Amino acid sequence: MIIESDFHSRLHSDYDAFLNEQKLRFPSNETLKIDIHCHDKNSDVPDELWGRLLRLPETWLKTKDLVKTLERNGTDLITVTNHNNARSCWQLLDMGYDVLVGAEFTCHFPDSQLSIHVLTYGFTPSQERDLNNLRHNILDFTRYTLENDIPTVLPHPLFFYTHKQRPDISILEKFAVMFQRFEVLNGQRGYWQNQLTRHWVESLTPDKINAYAHKHNLNPYDFCTDPYNKSFTGGSDDHNGIFAGRTGTLAHIPDLENRLKNTRRSELVLEAIRDGNTAPYGEVGKEEKLTVTFLDYFSQVAIHMEDPGLLRLLLHKGSLQDKMLCLGVSNAMQELKRHKYTLTFLKTFHEALSGTKPALLTSIGVSKEFRPTLKVVKEIARTQRKDPDNFLNIIRTAIPEIYNLVTSIFFSRLNQHLTLAKKDNQAGFNNFELNTDELIRKFEIPTQLRALFAGDKTPELTANSDHMTSLNLTKMLDQLTFPALASLVIAGASFAASQVIYSNRPFLNELADHLDKGQHPQKILWLTDTFSDHNGVSSALQSTLSEIQKYNYPIDILTCHPTLKSEEHLVVVEPVHQFKISSLGEQEFNVPDMIKIQRIFEQGSYDRIICSTEMLMGAIALYLKKAFSVPAFFFMHTDWMEFVQQTMNLNGHEKDRIRRLLRAFYLQFEGIYTLNNDHRDWLTSPEMGIDTEKVFLTQHWVADNYRKQPSQCDKENRCSNNTPHNSQPNPIFLYVGRLSDEKGVFDLPSIYSAVKSKIPHAELWVAGTGPAAKQLQIVLPEATFLGWVDKADLPALYQRADLLLLPSRFDTFGCVVLEALSCALPVTAYNCKGPKDIIEDKVSGYLVDSAHEMAEAMIEYCRDLDKQIKMQDAALLRSQQLKPEAIMAELLKNAQISDFQDDACRSQ
């Protein structure tokens, strides 16, 4: 279940109340309903560069189908506002329709990169030509419309085109002077943008308008008949004919019944628009609507797209990156056309959105595993046809359901293929090791894309087949194309929907602060692949969650797990698939439902991200960052370069490849949290190239139960405040952690042997599990292996020991170090990374450079009782210096949380 934030629910209820007020402004028997912002196939020159590169129109929607949708949704009059032309309106007039002539002109500010759309109504064919000639100077354009009594409306006033430059909020000051009518309800924009538009227009007092006019040297009467009397309109901004007419404008015409006897509706509505007697009505552009729109558009691209031509594409204006990406899209679409099953499904889905029931032959040809998907598609068609008022509610549940179904099928089939490949010893799956040369050799694909799909490969294509993937791609793609494509298309459409709604988020934030209304809360969603596992990352995050819950910090942690339950500030989503990677110690990874996480992010009103793991959640963090235009930060728990060094047999250039991959990943984030100075220096070094200002040094802390110290000895020789932990001649040395090679556990035998030669009764206790457990027990037969020790029992274990050993050079911080210090247990560790930032050498523990030095330090410690007492006191004092409140305050500051107040938060 997705829980709405207070901001999200309040925003919706406030704006819905506004729409209800607008609906009641005029008597219903004196209003005409019209969608004054919609498009059809004559909107054939897109504003977006990719559309022009690929020769894709904005829509293939036929005029007659748009008219049919508008009439079905209850509009009283037709207009079609295509970009820079009124061809559809003229054609409908020729066919005998009563039409309000309109168009949406793309206008430009002189000497500026800014472009805006202007809805324009009631012009003649000759005036249309004049408007197209004038639209390259918005000042001349709007003066002309006033002189010729042609009413204009500024659509989506907070969404305009700045060619990737951040707009200045002062542009709204010019809008306030130049326009009299504003679209405060756009069916393709979200609640937040529509609400801010409404608040901004309502804030425009005569004094403000005069001040703006003076500031920008503009005369408001050059552009408006009554510049101080602003009016509201609404429009669907629909391009595909799915939601046309569901959002629009109520035009008030007093004495409507009598006036209709002598005057056409188009003339009456034009008069109402001129006089400002209008009000918005209908649906807000939630993400579900935009997702469906993009899904339908992609389906039509797959059906209609032709090859754009390589030379034309390369010679077209635009960056090389845009051209290469469009080349990839073109190749993907042309190959998709060869996959008849997928193409049939896309056609079926497109028709269902317009209410057409899937054909019988289509239903018969669907395999058993896809029948649930077809059932959902049929329900979409039935609802659009018979219950259109409920259509959006059905879409809200249907799209995620389809995504979940096809994603599950994809992973199921992929797992079958990989299992077969493993059995056949294909593609190097047996005895798999992370070797980049081997991966590239085995998984290399030809640069000639046709070779990927050729059924009978020619000698030229297979000459280097020993160095190409031995997976049967043709067979594999036949099985995976549809579910993979369906998953990617739905995710892509959902991504595009969020990106359109939130692409100008910085501008919206600035406006909200300027208005002091509608400010989006500052709230972090913290993503992690691991939370309840037996590792240091999970332990640290659990401590973090406790602190978040204690003080109600504006952070929620999200993880994916099959059995873990959500709780306060912890959001758990169920996996759609699970898999293990043996080279990572049989770590189980849960594949989350990305669409669900996206909805959680939107409805939870989060506006920034922290991610703790580089795997699946790392990719999702970057997806959310781009989709919602929010800052994302990475919390570096693991040193993967050290992991590779310790566990993989890689040469220099292979390690360099991994470094470059990590660098490319980390550079995508606005900031990196790191737990030690060595890591910070490495991240800011030339080989990683991350700005110093973007790398933040942070720390962990331990749970409260580690801080409770006993006041007297127990029968197991526990110490008093003035006595060492264990004053008997059988000192206990303790290792706590994962039993794996990179943790340095195979240094323990030589260390323990050296200590035993001087202190025969010394004991070594090993707490933890891992892939090296069995082998370690063989080489350390005299040690006591405790297995996994629950967190609740660890403090007692620390207080029974004399010294904690950390032979790892892998740890970025070393939570066990801090846990031990908190229980007054000194630590000896290698002088590297995290431990050296925590341990004060020869004060709260020992920092050594080798196994031999570690053994010497242990022997020295056991021989000096005074030193033990001083070190135990110092250990406890050092642990108390790492206060969670200060650490969290710094973390929030570096995450750019500016409006969080401790007192306010604690009182909630």
From TrEMBL:
Any Pfam family from its record, for instance, is Glyco_transf_4
| Originating species | Neptunomonas japonica JAMM 1380
Kindly give the InterPro entries that the UniProt entry links to this protein: Glyco_trans_4-like_N, Glycosyltransferase_grp1, Pol/histidinol_Pase-like
* Descriptive protein name: Glycosyl transferase family 1
Q: Can the keyword Transferase be found in this entry's annotation?
A: yes
According to the UniProt entry, its GO molecular function terms are: glycosyltransferase activity
Question: Lineage from the top down?
Answer: Bacteria, Pseudomonadati, Pseudomonadota, Gammaproteobacteria, Oceanospirillales
| Record-linked SUPFAM superfamilies | PHP domain-like (SSF89550), UDP-Glycosyltransferase/glycogen phosphorylase (SSF53756)
Q: Which residues form the Glycosyltransferase subfamily 4-like N-terminal domain?
A: 535-694
